[in-house]
Amino acid sequence: MLRISNGRIYDPANGVNGAVRDICVNAGKIVAELPAAAKRIDAQGMVIMPGGIDIHCHIAGPKVNLARKLQPEDHRLDVHPGTAVTRSGTGGIVPSTFATGYRYAALGYTTAMEAAVTPIGARHVLEEFHDIPVIDKGFYVLLGNNVFLYDLLKAGRREDFRQAVAWWVNATKAYAVKLVNPGSDELWKGRRNANITDINENIDSFDLTPLDVIKAFIETVNDLGLPHPPHIHCNNLGRSGNYATTLDTMRAAEGRRAHIAHVQFHSYGGEPGKNPTSKGREIADYINNHPNITADIGQVMFGKATAMTADAPLAYLLRGISGNKWVNADTECESGCGIVPFTYHEKVYIHTLQWAIGLELFLLSKDPWRLVLSTDHPNGGSFMMYPRLIRLLMDRDFRNQEIQKVNQKAIRQTVLADKLDREYTLEEIAIITRAGPARALGLKDKGHLGVGADADVTIYDEHEDKEHMFSTPRYLIKDGVAVIEDHEFRCDHEGRVLHTAPAYDAAIENSIKPFFEDNYSIVFENYAVTDRYLHHHQVIPTVLER
Amino acid sequence: MSDNIRTVEHATCTFCGCVCDDMDLTVDMDAKRITKAKNACTLGRAWFAEHTIEDRPFALIDGKAATTEEAVEAAAQILVAARLPIIYGLSDTTCEAQRQAVAICDLMHGNIDTTTSVCHGPSGIAFQGVGESTATLGEIKNRADLVIYWGGNPAESHPRHFTRYAVTPKGRYVPNGRKDRYVVLVDVRRTPSAPVADLFIQIKPGHDFELLWALRAFVKGRKVDPNLAERTGVSLATMEDLVKRMKSCRYGVLFFGMGLTMTRGRHFNSGAVLALATDLNEFTHFVAKPVRGHGNVTGADNVVSWQTGYPFGVNFSRGYPRFNPGEYTTVDLLARGEADAAMIIASDPASNFPRPAIEHMKRIPVIALDTKPTDTTQLAKVAFTTSTYGINTSGTVYRMDDVPITLRPAFESPYPSDEEVLIAIKNRVRELLTKKRTRFPNLKVA
């Protein structure tokens, strides 16, 4: 039992905007009242928000571990000593599992979603999740280049397709369905590293276009009632002129729910092969006017990053630019993958343009509930950059000062040249880092502090410098346990795995099994992940089950 | 044979890095013995047949029979008293046990290393330097039309590598299986794998790097020193022909073994083979893959990496992980006489390490966890008998291509698993360390 008194509360989902009132916590939940004798935290002069929620990051699993192994030079510079209650680890752009959990917690975050997992790698992700302390986590399973599902679509077996998608979500213990550059894998693996650039183009050997695939998933995932709509990494990421593909993809939703991942990387004008321009306004306008669409920004932050993506052709393109070491990893029947360490420089035109387009999208957004914060960690920069990003949004003078330091030619392409006045309020920050992601994810018990919510609470010392303020919460309450008190870890804590389990007809296995025998290298019966990998977990009901 | 027969379908063989998961086991439950292993290769059949329950003490302390509990106490006391305790092995146990081993090391600020450091450690180092284009084995089965083996003899070390994954199986884009593939073997001598290849290239021992570098030059259209033919034992025409095949295939793969990583050049050799595969992606799709030996050595690499950021050779002396092969690798720590206690898990370094390392093992207290008596358990002060992963206990293993698989045990063992022993040691070490690190352990605070 814990009572938090005298703090200013920002709980946008319940319309609380800076009011001073008590928050009561019991048995891991927010409750209405507690006996007077309950332990008390005096939060005088402090700001209270629900625990932060990262809707799109890469923190665990096969590709993340490859990227970790790839960069010893980066770990060496940023060690993470253990304490009497916490494990040690290493940091850098791809931290070890323990460091990942503790560092998210130390920023005030209590939930993070791993955004791209091959089905065959699901077991690996869950093993790593077990070693990511404090926070709750879930993952999105990559189905957008799945050969078996393509076979079903090609044959027009839409009902079987729907059953198979539901089967795969269950078999992997996923939270949501992810599409990455649909159609590209066949060309990348099968046609000498080619890529698909037009979503109306036929995907090799399948009588099918990326647009067909996108539409099928939007329809099916919405019909299944998964708490989060299809999470889409659009085609043509990073390419000049790609905003048209992004708009076409959003239009394909035809009013049904869809989430566009790291939309900054998909908001470029210009001719393919030439320098990009900004189409931030066009993308922001479309999202502003279409309440069925949610998106996360994928903000670029200057400094070290690592491109790690199921979009293998993109990683190869980046390798050509950076000349850096490169990992490619093909997963049978399911996915491609590419990894390239990368650094964003403030004097480089394209890097500055990317940075500026992210800020443009934030500043032109009219609905913070639907355009939420991410750096696509570690693709645009580390999640450790969130406090700095928050300051860029909240502090106009700081932003204008930073704009002076970067490539001015790029700035002139964007609305930042107009020195926009907008400053995000604490309430809006609470929306783009908590309440908004929770709503987009369909997590009813998270992202708010109403009675019955998960007792995931962050308490910040109020400070003029918002980067400083959001870097070090004074308290972090996870499931009602004060994990951080006075900026120090007081105990270790195991968060939950969040997943969903849509109903399906088991007869679909009769279709999937023969495909395994012919195409996979492991036995069908050894493929589905059993509950023993879940440990501490929670099934989030589908819309149909609520 | 008794009537008490059980069958276990879709069991997994953990003998080698192929980790084939299509075993159908027939188990005599009374005799506690696997009598038949359908689909297993000769190595797999021997693995399943050999593991029975022998009547051995649960543990030995100084050669005398002891209970597991007594041995846990003795082991914890040794580890806590040591200034630089080291943990080594781990490639023949589950990921669940490996996680506990790293946890113990983190607690006691010791050193942890796996058998990777004496097999594909150089490939791990090369990976950090140049990256890797790679694939799961099913992708190779479905797509590879050019398969090159370099410095390995899978016919004897990984018999089903050819038949289940890479050479003979029919795949989606290679519907005729073997007929749709061109197979090359590069090695210093004609091994039993050679008849499988369409082209066998015999290279002079110790000259792999030169040949790989020459191939890279040909791929990039550069001139090559004609003397290389004499030095490597491979004609320039053969090199050019191979390069032509590599550039014109649709999906090529380079498998490499310890013939490359543990001979002259080591991580330079691995780096060269990885760089060659990377270069070829300018022309076609090309991947490379180390052919790993032990059943879960790939799991060890993964677990140690996700917990520490580094794949092997990790030191916690300062309270956080540091990596430095040559300094924190086990052979070196032992040969230099730095380690003052060792815990060896599922490995037998006393039978295969260099003599100075073994000599030092004899001077320090050694704790061993193994399913059978080995040279290492013989010299150990504390030796645990543990059950066998994949036969008696479940858990997770990673195939050589990083695909995780859950084990299906065949019959129960009276002995505890490595994981159970390690959890008990961890808990006791934590208790002892809490006392040791508290300045006034007996002071009562009001």
Topology:
The complex is a heterodimer of chains A (546) and B (446).
Chain A lengths: L1 E4 L2 E4 L4 E5 L2 E4 L2 E3 L7 E4 L3 E5 L1 E6 L4 H9 L1 H5 L2 E2 L8 E2 L6 H9 L3 E9 L4 H9 L5 E7 L4 H8 L3 H15 L3 E5 L3 H7 L19 H15 L6 E3 L9 H10 L5 E3 L7 E2 L7 E2 L1 H10 L3 E4 L6 E7 L2 H11 L3 E5 L7 E7 L4 H16 L6 E2 L13 H9 L1 H9 L3 H4 L14 H16 L15 E5 L4 H6 L3 E4 L2 E5 L2 E2 L7 E3 L9 H11 L17 E3 L7
Parallel strand pairs in A: 1-6, 2-7, 8-11, 11-12, 12-13, 13-14, 14-15, 15-18, 18-22, 27-28
Antiparallel strand pairs in A: 1-4, 2-3, 4-5, 7-23, 9-10, 16-17, 19-21, 20-21, 23-24, 24-25, 25-26
Helix pairs in contact in A: 6-8, 10-12, 13-14
Chain B lengths: L4 E7 L11 E6 L4 E6 L3 H9 L8 E3 L2 E3 L1 H14 L3 E5 L5 H14 L2 E4 L6 H10 E5 L1 H7 L2 E5 L3 H4 L2 H7 L15 E6 L11 E4 L5 H12 L7 H6 L3 H13 L2 E6 L1 H4 L4 H15 L4 E6 L6 H12 L5 E2 L6 E2 L6 H6 L5 E5 L3 H4 L2 H9 L2 E5 L4 H5 L2 E4 L10 E3 L5 E3 L11 H20 L9
Parallel strand pairs in B: 6-7, 6-16, 9-10, 9-12, 10-11, 12-13, 16-17, 17-18
Antiparallel strand pairs in B: 1-2, 2-3, 4-5, 4-18, 7-14, 14-15, 19-20
Walk me through what this model shows.
- The complex is a heterodimer of chains A (546) and B (446).
- Chain A is α/β, with parallel strands linked by helices.
- Chain A has one domain: TIM Barrel, CATH 3.20.20.
- Chain A is 33% helix and 21% strand.
- Chain A has an eight-stranded parallel β-sheet. Chain A has a seven-stranded mixed β-sheet with strand order 3-2-7-23-24-25-26, covered by helices on one side.
- In chain A, strand 4 (23-26) and strand 5 form a beta hairpin.
- Chain A is globular, with a radius of gyration of 22 Å.
- Chain B is of the alpha/beta class.
- Chain B has three domains: 5-49, no CATH class; 56-119 and 295-437, Rossmann fold (3-Layer(aba) Sandwich), CATH 3.40.50.740; 121-290, Dimethylsulfoxide Reductase, domain 2 (3-Layer(aba) Sandwich), CATH 3.40.228.
- Chain B is 38% helix and 20% strand.
- Chain B has helices spanning 42-50, 68-81, 95-108, 121-130, 137-143, 154-157, 160-166, 208-219, 227-232, 236-248, 258-261, 266-280, 297-308, 330-335, 349-352, 355-363, 375-379, 418-437; strands at 5-11, 23-28, 33-38, 59-61, 64-66, 85-89, 111-114, 131-135, 146-150, 182-187, 199-202, 251-256, 285-290, 314-315, 322-323, 341-345, 366-370, 382-385, 396-398, 404-406.
- In chain B, the strands form four sheets. In chain B, strands 5-4-18-17-16-6-7-14-15 form a nine-stranded mixed β-sheet. A five-stranded parallel β-sheet of chain B has the order 11-10-9-12-13.
- In chain B, strand 19 (396-398) and strand 20 form a beta hairpin.
- In chain B, helix 2 (68-81) packs across helix 18 (418-437), helix 3 packs across helix 13 and helix 8 packs parallel to helix 12 (266-280).
- The longest helix of chain B has 20 residues, at 418-437.
- The radius of gyration of chain B is 24 Å and the shape is globular.
- The termini of chain B are far apart.
- At the A-B interface, helix 1, helix 2, strand 9, strand 10 and helix 4 of A face helix 3, helix 4, strand 8, helix 5 and helix 13 of B.
